[in-house]
Design goal:
The complex is a heterodimer of chains A (531) and B (336).
Chain A: E1 2-10, E2 19-26, E3 31-36, H1 42-49, H2 52-55, E4 60-67, H3 72-80, E5 84-87, H4 100-110, H5 115-129, H6 144-156, E6 162-166, H7 174-190, E7 194-198, H8 202-205, E8 211-216, E9 221-225, H9 227-231, H10 239-246, H11 256-263, E10 283-294, E11 297-308, E12 312-316, H12 323-331, E13 338-343, E14 346-347, H13 353-359, E15 360-363, H14 376-386, H15 393-402, H16 418-430, E16 436-440, H17 448-463, E17 467-471, H18 475-481, E18 484-489, E19 492-498, H19 499-505, H20 512-516, H21 525-529
Chain B: H1 10-26, H2 30-46, H3 56-73, E1 80-84, E2 93-96, H4 97-123, H5 126-130, H6 138-166, H7 179-202, H8 212-232, H9 238-262, H10 275-284, H11 289-293, H12 316-330
Antiparallel strand pairs in B: 1-2
Helix pairs in contact in B: 1-4, 1-10, 2-4, 2-12, 3-4, 6-7, 8-9, 10-12
The chains are: A alpha/beta (531), B mainly alpha (336).
Chain lengths: 531, 336
C-alpha cells in the first residue's frame, strides 16, 4: 500500500513547491500509471516513494508518506531498497560494476545476503525476466531494451514488493516497449508486485493500468483514481481518448479495444484532412544506392530515396536498423562505402560537415551533447560564430519565439525541461536558416502538448519550403506531421509511401485512429472529426 | 565452442603477465623477442576472436616506426646502408644496419608488452581483479570500479559531443576550440556521477566509514613502522629495526582485517583455484629464473648489434621454454 497524505515538497533554492499538498493511495498489487506534463513533478513524486526525496535531493518536505507501513522520509533509501525497487530514466548511468550478473548481485552484496541465498535469488530473477542469455554479458553491449530489463532485474534482486519505473520505454522502439510492458505485467500479475510507472505514451499502458495519477505541474497537485476517472479531466490524452471526448462517447474508452464499440456511430464517409500531399516535386535531398558499413557489418545495403522541397518525410524502423547511421552519413559524419548523396542539386562528396550543416541542419538524439553555453540565446550565437556568419539578434529572437522559448532566452539551457532543451538544440542548428532539416528522435521524453507544438512548428517550416527528414518510433507523431513514411529494415527501405497509407496499413505502425477505423484511411482524430 | 574445463584463476593470469614481463626484460635477443610476440599472438588467437585484437598490420606499424626512428636518429654502427646529406637538420648522416636492428629489437619489445597487456585485459576483467583488494578498502575498490566502467561511456559521450558540435559548424583550430567539446563532457560527467550515486543509494549502497578507533590504530601501526625505519639508520640496530617494522606491518594488517570483518557486505563471486592453475603455474616457473639467477644468466640472452652487426645466437631449448607462455591461453574457455 502506498499512501501520500498532504505531501508538500520544495527543492532547495526554490520558492514554489513541486508537490503541493498531494494526497492519494494505491492498493497493493496495483498497476499504476503516473503521467503529466514534462517537468510537472512526476520524477519527484516517484522519488518520494523510496526516500530519495528528500534524502538525496535535499529540500523541505511536509505531510506523511507510508509505503507498506514504512515512512521513507524517516527510513531513507537504503532501508527502503528492501521494499521499493527503482528503475531510473537514464539506464546507462545506473550500472555500477559492468557485468549483468554482477550488477544484479550488487544490491544483494550491499545487503550482506549470504552467497548461496544470493545465487538462489539471482536465479529466480533471471528466470522471472527470462534473461538467462544475458547473464554473462557486459552491460555496455546490451541493446536499449535489454538494458531496461537488466535494470529491472537489478531492482528486483532484493525481492521488493513495489517496483517504481521512471519513463522506462522512452528510448525503445514499439516492439521492445511492448516486450517490456509485458514483463512488468507478468511481475504484477504473477508475482503480485505493485507497479508504479511514469510514462508519456499513455496508449502503451492504458490496456493494463488499474490506477492512474495525473501530476499537474502548475499548482503542484495530483488527480488520482482509475484511469477512466482521471482521463475524464486530464488535459493530456492519447488520440483515441481525445476523439472519444470530442464525440462525447460515454463511458470514456481508453483503448482502441474499448473504443471499437463506439466506432459504428461514425458512419458518414468524411473528407480526409491529414497532411495534404506535397505540392512541389523539386528534390532537395537525393540519395542513390547508398551503402554503409560498420566495420565489416553492412548497416545500409542499397538505399535510394528523394526528399522534395517543402516535404516532411518520416523514417521509421526497429532499433539498430541504421536510421541514425543514414542521417550521420548524409551529414558526412560517417563515410559511405558506395552511393551518391545530392543536396540542393550538388553532390556532397567534397563538402565538409559544416558546409552540409549550413544547408541541411541535423539535430542528434541527445540535445545535451550540444548544449554548453550559459544562456539559451548564446547557443544560437555560438552556431553563427562557428559558421562565421553575422549574428542578428532580431532573427534569433524570431526563431526562439517560433520555438516557444521567448521566455527562456536568458535561462541556462541544461536547467530546462526535456522538450525545451530539445527546442533549444533545434534553434542552435537552424539559426543558419538551412533549406533542410534532419531530426533524430526529437520527441523522446516529450508529453503530448510538447509533441503537438513541435509538430505544428515543423508544419509551419514545411510551409516555408523547408524539407524535413525525421526519424521517430512515435507513430502518432508521425501521423500528425508526415507527408510520406519510409520504413527501414535489414539495411534497406522496406516500405515507402504516403503517411496515410503506411500508417493505416503497416503492421505495428498503425495509429490508434487507423486501428479503430480500418480501411478508411484515417490516421488522426481530425480525419474523423472533419465535417 | 565452450570448453568443459574451468577458466584460469585471475591470479594465474597475473602470474602469466609477470612471466611475460620477466621474459621481455631478460633478453634483447631479437629472435627470442619475436618468438615471444608470436607466441602471445597465437595465445590471443586461441583465446577467441570476439573482441578486438592487435592485427599483424598494427604491430607491423609499431615495429616500422621504431625501426624508422632508430635508423634516422642513431648514428652508431659500422655497416652503413645509406647516407643522408649532412646539411639536412636532425636526420642528416649515415643510416646503419646496426641502428635498424636496434630499432627492430626495441619495436619487438614494445609489441610484446602491448600484446601481453591486451591479452591479459581480455582474459581478466578489472572487476575480478578489484575483488582481490581487501574488504576494508571496499569504497576505494568501488570508486575504481566505477571509474573504469565510465571509461567506455565517456569515450562514447565524447564522440557524441564531437559530432553534435561538428554539425553546428565547430572545427578545432586553436586551443580554445576544445572548450565546446570538454565543457559538455565535464557537465555530462558530473550529471552522470550524480545519477549514479542516486541509483546506488536506491540499491541499498551504504558508505561505511571505519571507526575512529581503527583509524588511530592504523596510524599507530604506521608510526611504529616509521620508527623501525628510523632505528635502522643507526649502526647495529638491524634486529630492533626489523622487529619494529614487523610489528608496525602486523598492526596495520590487523586493523585492515578487522575493518573487513566488520563490513556487512557479502561477496557473490568467490573464485577458486583449479588443477589447471597449478599446471599453468608450473609451466610459467622458468620465466622467473632470471630473478633468481641475476647476473649468472646465460650470455646468449643478451645481444647488441653494435659495433658490427652479427647474427643473434639461438638456442632451441629457449624455444621450448617459450611454449610455456602459450599454455595458459590454451586453457579455459574461449571468449567467442
Amino acid at each position: 500500500m502506498i499512501e501520500f497524505n498532504e505531501v508538500t515538497f520544495t527543492y532547495p533554492g526554490q520558492k514554489q513547491p513541486t508537490l503541493d499538498h498531494i494526497s492519494f493511495s494505491i492498493p497493493e498489487g496495483a498497476f499504476t500509471l503516473v503521467t503529466g506534463r514534462s517537468g510537472a513533478g512526476k520524477s519527484t513524486l516517484l522519488r518520494c516513494v523510496n526516500g530519495l526525496v528528500p534524502h538525496f535531493s535535499g529540500g523541505r518536505i511536509g505531510g506523511q508518506i507510508f509505503i507498506n507501513g514504512l515512512d521513507p522520509v524517516q527510513a531513507g533509501p537504503q532501508v527502503m531498497s528492501d521494499t521499493v525497487g527503482f528503475v531510473f530514466q537514464d539506464i546507462e548511468s545506473q550500472f555500477v560494476v559492468g557485468r549483468v550478473e554482477d550488477e544484479i548481485a550488487f544490491s544483494l552484496e550491499n545487503a550482506g545476503i549470504p552467497m548461496i541465498e544470493m545465487k538462489h535469488r539471482i536465479d529466480t530473477v533471471v528466470e522471472q525476466l527470462k534473461i538467462g542469455s544475458l547473464r554473462e554479458r557486459k552491460v555496455e553491449t546490451l541493446s536499449g531494451g535489454e538494458a531496461q530489463i537488466v535494470a529491472i532485474a537489478c531492482a528486483m534482486a532484493l525481492s521488493p514488493s513495489i517496483l517504481v519505473l521512471d519513463e522506462p520505454t522512452s528510448q525503445l522502439d514499439p516492439e521492445a516497449a511492448e516486450r517490456l510492458v509485458q514483463i512488468l505485467l507478468r511481475l504484477n500479475r504473477e508475482n503480485k508486485v505493485t507497479i508504479l510507472l511514469a510514462e508519456h505514451r499513455l496508449e502503451r499502458i492504458f490496456p493494463y493500468a488499474t490506477h492512474m495519477i495525473y501530476v499537474d505541474g502548475c499548482p503542484g497537485r495530483v488527480t488520482s483514481g482509475t484511469p477512466g476517472e482521471v482521463m475524464a479531466q486530464a488535459p493530456l490524452c492519447p488520440p483515441v481518448v481525445s476523439l472519444a471526448r470530442r464525440l462525447h462517447w460515454q463511458p470514456l474508452p481508453l483503448t482502441v479495444e474499448d473504443a471499437k464499440r463506439f466506432a459504428h456511430l461514425v458512419t458518414t464517409p468524411q473528407k480526409t484532412v491529414s497532411n495534404e500531399p506535397v505540392k512541389t516535386l523539386e528534390a532537395f535531398l537525393e540519395i542513390e544506392h547508398l551503402k554503409v558499413n560498420h566495420g565489416r557489418k553492412e548497416i545500409l545495403k542499397d538505399i535510394s530515396l528523394k526528399i522534395n522541397r517543402g516535404e516532411i518525410v518520416v523514417l521509421m524502423g526497429a532499433n539498430g536498423t541504421g536510421k541514425t547511421t543514414l542521417l550521420r552519413t548524409i551529414m558526412g559524419i560517417k563515410q559511405p562505402e558506395a552511393g551518391r548523396i545530392i543536396l540542393n542539386g550538388r553532390s556532397v562528396e567534397k563538402m565538409t560537415v559544416a558546409q552540409r550543416a549550413r544547408q541541411m541542419a541535423y539535430l542528434p538524439q541527445d540535445p545535451n551533447a550540444m548544449l554548453f553555453a550559459d544562456r539559451v540565446q548564446d547557443e544560437l550565437m555560438i552556431t553563427m560564430r562557428n559558421h562565421q556568419m553575422p549574428f542578428e539578434w532580431e532573427a534569433a529572437a524570431a526563431l526562439l519565439s517560433q520555438l516557444g522559448l521567448s521566455e527562456k532566452i536568458d535561462a541556462y539551457p541544461r536547467d530546462l525541461s526535456t522538450g525545451e532543451r530539445q527546442r533549444t538544440a533545434l534553434g542552435a542548428v537552424t539559426i543558419t536558416h538551412p533549406g533542410g532539416l534532419l531530426l533524430d528522435e526529437p520527441t523522446r521524453g516529450m508529453d503530448y502538448a510538447a509533441k503537438q507544438a513541435l509538430g505544428d512548428l515543423l508544419k509551419r517550416w514545411r510551409e516555408d519550403n523547408i524539407s524535413i527528414l525525421l526519424v521517430t518510433h512515435d507513430v502518432e507523431f508521425a501521423a500528425q506531421c508526415a507527408d510520406r513514411v519510409m520504413v527501414l529494415g535489414e539495411g534497406t527501405l522496406q516500405r515507402m509511401g504516403e503517411a496515410r497509407y503506411v500508417l493505416s496499413k503497416e503492421p505495428g505502425l498503425t495509429t490508434q485512429v487507423a486501428q479503430l477505423f480500418p480501411d478508411r484511411g484515417w490516421i488522426i482524430p481530425e480525419d474523423v472529426l472533419y465535417k | 565452442m565452450k570448453r568443459e574445463w574451468p577458466d584460469l584463476h585471475p591470479l594465474t593470469w597475473l602470474l602469466w603477465l609477470m612471466a611475460v614481463m620477466s621474459a621481455i626484460s631478460t633478453t634483447r635477443n631479437p629472435f627470442y623477442q619475436l618468438l615471444l610476440v608470436l607466441g602471445i599472438m597465437v595465445a590471443g588467437e586461441a583465446a577467441g576472436r570476439s573482441r578486438s585484437w592487435f592485427s599483424p598490420a598494427w604491430l607491423g606499424m609499431v615495429l616500422g616506426i621504431s625501426v624508422l626512428l632508430s635508423g634516422l636518429f642513431y648514428r652508431y654502427g659500422n655497416t652503413v646502408l645509406i647516407r643522408i646529406p649532412e646539411n639536412i637538420p636532425l636526420i642528416g648522416g649515415a643510416i646503419t644496419a646496426e641502428a635498424l636492428v636496434y630499432g627492430a629489437t626495441n619495436g619487438l619489445i614494445l609489441c610484446g608488452v602491448l600484446v601481453a597487456f591486451a591479452l591479459f585485459n581480455r582474459k581478466v576483467s578489472y572487476a575480478v581483479l578489484l575483488r582481490w583488494i581487501p574488504r576494508a578498502f571496499y569504497p576505494l575498490t568501488l570508486i575504481l570500479s566505477i571509474a573504469l566502467t565510465y571509461v567506455p561511456v565517456t569515450i562514447r559521450q565524447f564522440e557524441q559531443i564531437k559530432e553534435a558540435q561538428m554539425v553546428r559548424g565547430h572545427e578545432v583550430r586553436r586551443l580554445r576550440d576544445w572548450l565546446p567539446l570538454f565543457l559538455p563532457l565535464l557537465i555530462s560527467g558530473l550529471e552522470r556521477a550524480i545519477a549514479l550515486s542516486e541509483a546506488m543509494m536506491a540499491r541499498g549502497f551504504v558508505k561505511t566509514l571505519p571507526y575512529s578507533r581503527h583509524n588511530t590504530l592504523f596510524f599507530g601501526g604506521f608510526l611504529i613502522l616509521l620508527a623501525g625505519w628510523v632505528v635502522g639508520l643507526f649502526p647495529d640496530m638491524g634486529l630492533a629495526s626489523g622487529l619494529l617494522a614487523a610489528a608496525g606491518f602486523a598492526m596495520m594488517g590487523l586493523v585492515i582485517w578487522k575493518i573487513g570483518r566488520n563490513s556487512q557486505r557479502s561477496v557473490y563471486r568467490k573464485l577458486a583455484f583449479s588443477w589447471l592453475d597449478i599446471i599453468a603455474a608450473v609451466s610459467l616457473a622458468p620465466f622467473f629464473l632470471p630473478l633468481i639467477l641475476r647476473e649468472n644468466f646465460p650470455v646468449e640472452m643478451s645481444y647488441s648489434p653494435y659495433p658490427q652487426l652479427q647474427l643473434p645466437p639461438f638456442n632451441p631449448v629457449v624455444l621450448v621454454i617459450l611454449m610455456g607462455l602459450i599454455f595458459p591461453a590454451l586453457c579455459g574457455a574461449r571468449d567467442d
